[in-house]
Specification:
The protein is an all-alpha fold. The protein has one domain. It has a two-stranded antiparallel sheet with strand order 1-2. The radius of gyration is 27 Å and the shape is elongated. The two termini are about 20 Å apart.
C-alpha cells in the first residue's frame, strides 16, 4: 500500500469556507483504503511484518519451552533417583538433614546450565516482542495523526488499534510467563521435596500465564494481514 497523505476537502464557491467571516475551517478527511494486496508499503507493510514476527517469535518460544521441558524432566528424574530415593528409609527429620548434605550429581550441574541457556533464549525472544509492540505503537500513532481516530481498516476489518492492543496483551502474557520460568530455573535444582518439584515441572509444561486467547490473537493477526 502506498501511504496516502491526508487530503483536505475543497469547499465549493458557495460554501462558508470562501467567506472571510467563515467560522469553520475545511476539515481533513481520511481517504478510504482499498483492500491491501501485492507488494505493500508504509503502515500496511510494517503491520504485516509485525504479524509475521509475532508468529515466528512464538514458534521459537514454543521450541525453547519444549526443550526446557525435556531438561526439567531430566533434572526431576535425576533428583528423584539419586537424592530423594537415597533417603527413603530414613525418618522425616533425618531425611531432611540427609537431603541437605547429599552431594549433587555432576549431571545436575550440566542440565542446569542447559536450562539457563534456554531461559536466556526466552529472554531474547521477549525483548524482540517488545520491539514489535513498540513498532506497532509507532504505526498506531502515525495513523492517528494521519486520520483522527485511526479507525480505517488497514487490511480487512481491523484498524491499527486492534493490532497494537493484541500485541500489548500478548506481550503482557509472555512477560509474566518469563517471570515464572525464571523462578523455576533459579529454584528447580534446590527443591527439597517431591511436591514442589512436581509443581515446577507442571508449571513449566502448562505455561499458565499464556492463556488460550494468545493463540486466537496471533492467528487473528495472521489471517487479518492475509498470510492465511
Amino acid at each position: 500500500m502506498s501511504s496516502q497523505a491526508r487530503s483536505p476537502s475543497i469547499p465549493s464557491e458557495n460554501t462558508a469556507g470562501n467567506s472571510p467571516n467563515s467560522l469553520f475551517s475545511p476539515i481533513q478527511v481520511c481517504p478510504t483504503r482499498s483492500p491491501q494486496a501485492g507488494n505493500l508499503t508504509g503502515s500496511a507493510r510494517k503491520v504485516k511484518d509485525s504479524a509475521a514476527d509475532w508468529h515466528n517469535h512464538v514458534q521459537s518460544w514454543n521450541a525453547l519451552s519444549s526443550k526446557g521441558m525435556s531438561i526439567i524432566n531430566k533434572i526431576a528424574n535425576l533428583k528423584l533417583e539419586t537424592i530423594f530415593n537415597s533417603t527413603s528409609s530414613a525418618d522425616d527429620e533425618e531425611d531432611s538433614v540427609t537431603r541437605n548434605t547429599f552431594s549433587m550429581p555432576e549431571e545436575l550441574e550440566t542440565w542446569c546450565k542447559a536450562l539457563d541457556t534456554v531461559l536466556e533464549g526466552m529472554n531474547k525472544i521477549v525483548k524482540k516482542l517488545e520491539i514489535v509492540t513498540a513498532a506497532l505503537k509507532g504505526v498506531r500513532d502515525l495513523e492517528w495523526h494521519r486520520c483522527v481516530g485511526g479507525a480505517e481498516p488497514l487490511f480487512q476489518t481491523w484498524p491499527i488499534e486492534e493490532f497494537y492492543n493484541a500485541s500489548e496483551e500478548l506481550l503482557a502474557m509472555f512477560n509474566r510467563e518469563l517471570e515464572l520460568k525464571t523462578t523455576i530455573v533459579q529454584n528447580v535444582a534446590h527443591v527439597q521435596n517431591r511436591e514442589t518439584l512436581m509443581f515446577y515441572t507442571s508449571a513449566w509444561l502448562h505455561q499458565p500465564y499464556i492463556d488460550k486467547n494468545a493463540d486466537i490473537l496471533i492467528q487473528s493477526m495472521v489471517v487479518e494481514t492475509g498470510f492465511r
